[in-house]
Amino acid sequence: MSFIRTLKGDIQPGELGFTYSHEHIVCRPAYWAERGEDDLLLDDKEKSQLDVQDFKKYGGRSIVDATAVDYGRDVQAVKAISDELDLHIVGTAGFNKSFLWDAQIKEELKPIIGNYTTYAEWIEKSSINALTEFVIREVEEGLEGTPFKAGQVKFGTGYNRITPLEEKTLRAVARAHHETKAPMHSHTEAGTMGLEQIELLKSEGVDLQYMSFGHMDRNPDPYYHEQVAKTGAFLSFDGIAKIKYAPESTRIQCILELVNKGYEDQILVSGDTARKTYYKHYDHGLGLEYIIAKWVPRFIDDANRQGFDGEKLIQKFFVDNPARCFTFKK
Ligand SMILES: [Zn+2]
User: Fold this and answer.
1) 154 known member of a binding site
2) Where does the record locate the signal sequence feature (predicted)?
3) Is 22 annotated as contributing to ligand binding?
């Protein structure tokens, strides 16, 4: 039995269609709210929905919302957008990187998480088993006490380091994956520590073809990408349009190098659009439509000029690969 689990229910992998594999839609991360970083709060459901509607207008069908509980997601708002636009949204169970845990847990979450003050306190004082049970409930019962279930499980690590609490969440997420068969995703800070994550996942007996590594394009190193790809895992190039990190040509060349080495079936592409200034309808940004409307034609032209079949690769990165990556295989 194989299916993809969306907030609206389980679907067949073939129903997913054109998919962004790592986005944030409506969220109010406590860590950033406490520090007055308004740009990082996607806190207006109607504005977020207008950007998602633009994505749909260009033919988008599905979005993976990579926002975990510790990043202040608004499950009800995201589910409402999915309903109102008739678009598939995959939710995320699990955790983010550790520095975000130095933030207050909102009162409404305490009946679900436990009576802790901060996320760090919760993760430190809970056993791995208790954290595993929490993640399993988010996949099998629903996110944050709602009936809307997660379609992937996530953990994260920091820049060039993995803290003991990050390792604890990695192990809890791996064990929840074994129990639920949910696909796994990770945050790598600036693309680092992917290989170290792999070692820990192997120690938990994880088959790496169930894994996608986020933010691989933040570390535009073809040798490193090859080491990750060799394990069978998916690589998420989810920093499209972030020229402050690298020009588009760098990301495209890294992708085409992986294609040359035979890994075209393991590549995902998305925008990780998590700031008001990236959204068109919050603050005049390029918007959620940018990749499907502008980047895809540029990639096709660029790839074709270099002797690749650009159209075929786009079908893989946005349709075929997500359909395999996000499938539960029971
Ligand atoms: Zn993200």
Assistant:
1) yes
2) none
3) yes
